[in-house]
Amino acid sequence: MDTQTITHLIQQGLPDAVVHVQGDDGVHFEALVVSPAFAGKLPLARHRMVYATLGERMGGEIHALALRTLTPDEHARAGGADA
Which burial class, exposed, middle or buried, applies to 4 when counting CB atoms under 10 A from its CB (0-12, 13-18, 19+)? Predict the structure, then answer.
């Protein structure tokens, strides 16, 4: 598994998202996902939305995925960090 594949899968499932994935070892990754679909949702619901885009790959090909999920407004208030 690689960062480009993960980015593509997340963007397929959340087409309005801006996605940045990092990870050097092929099994542990970090992702920043910015999407208006996260508005009004708690962090756990946001993470489930991202995990759903990856399906069975989570816990298999992707051993660990640290997520940071923000709405565009939250991302702008954070100064656009990491994007």
Answer: exposed
